[in-house]
TrEMBL record:
Domain Transposase IS4-like: 13-175
Protein name in the entry: IS4 family transposase
SUPFAM superfamilies for the chain: Ribonuclease H-like (SSF53098)
Keyword terms: Plasmid
Organism expressing this protein natively: Neorhizobium petrolearium
Length: 224
């Protein structure tokens, strides 16, 4: 599901918008992020929410191992600035996971993750590496929103900033409602939600909407 969505003008960066999204994190969440978002400030803001983090970083990022762990990961520290790194002061402890995707066409030689989950027994490196790749499912959600819900090659109809915001959040809410319905259906059938078709669900809802639209106002049940 897409939630806590933010929008701004084309001059506003994704990292700036991410700061607003981080305020919606909760302690029982695990936040995944791509390497373009990693930075000491953003990491610290996300950790202040109480949520755990699993973020990808550049594979050449300087992360000196403090302790090697049995699952192949290691404990290290990140620093706010170059001076802190040189003097090894004010560091924040993280766990580093390096891994390869053998036999996958187009895969990079090395992937590097940092996480706030320091216990290798509670969160083994192999499980976290597999979990991180679920992050790419967000691209499927973007496709659902922009192609199948809005319509391929269709731009927003609105021509003023306020109406563009209204239309954008309307699409976000519609996507959230459809995904919520799919989740409920999957739970009732004891199925994995990933096995359900977003396109098929949209078609079913569209067919049902014509039925609800045909109800005369005089027969509409009153809500008390």
């Amino acid at each position: 599901m897409l939630f806590a969505s933010q929008m701004a003008g084309c001059a506003t960066s994704e990292v700036t918008l991410a700061k607003a999204v981080l305020a919606c994190l909760e302690p029982d969440m695990l936040c995944l992020a791509d390497r373009s978002f990693f930075g000491f400030e953003l990491w610290s803001l996300a950790r202040d929410s109480g949520a755990n983090l699993l973020w990808r970083v550049r594979k050449n990022m300087r992360l000196s191992p403090d302790k090697r762990l049995p699952d192949g990961s290691c404990l290290s520290r990140i620093y706010r600035c170059e001076r802190d790194w040189r003097h090894k002061t004010n560091g924040v402890q993280v766990r580093v996971i390096d891994y390869r995707l053998d036999g996958v066409t187009g895969a990079e030689p090395i992937y590097r993750l940092v996480t706030s989950l320091l216990d290798h027994e509670e969160a083994p490196a192999k499980e976290l590496a597999a979990l991180y790749h679920e992050r790419w499912a967000i691209e499927t959600s973007f496709d659902e929103l922009k192609t199948h819900l809005r319509g391929a090659r269709i731009v927003l109809r609105s021509r003023t900033p306020d109406l563009v915001r209204q239309e954008f959040y309307g699409l976000i809410m519609a996507h959230f409602a459809i995904r919520g319905l799919m989740h409920e259906a999957a739970l009732s059938a004891d199925e994995d939600p990933d096995r359900l078709s977003f396109i098929h669900t949209v078609r079913v809802i569209r067919r049902k909407l014509t039925v609800f639209a045909a109800i005369p106002p005089s027969t509409t049940p009153r809500l008390s």
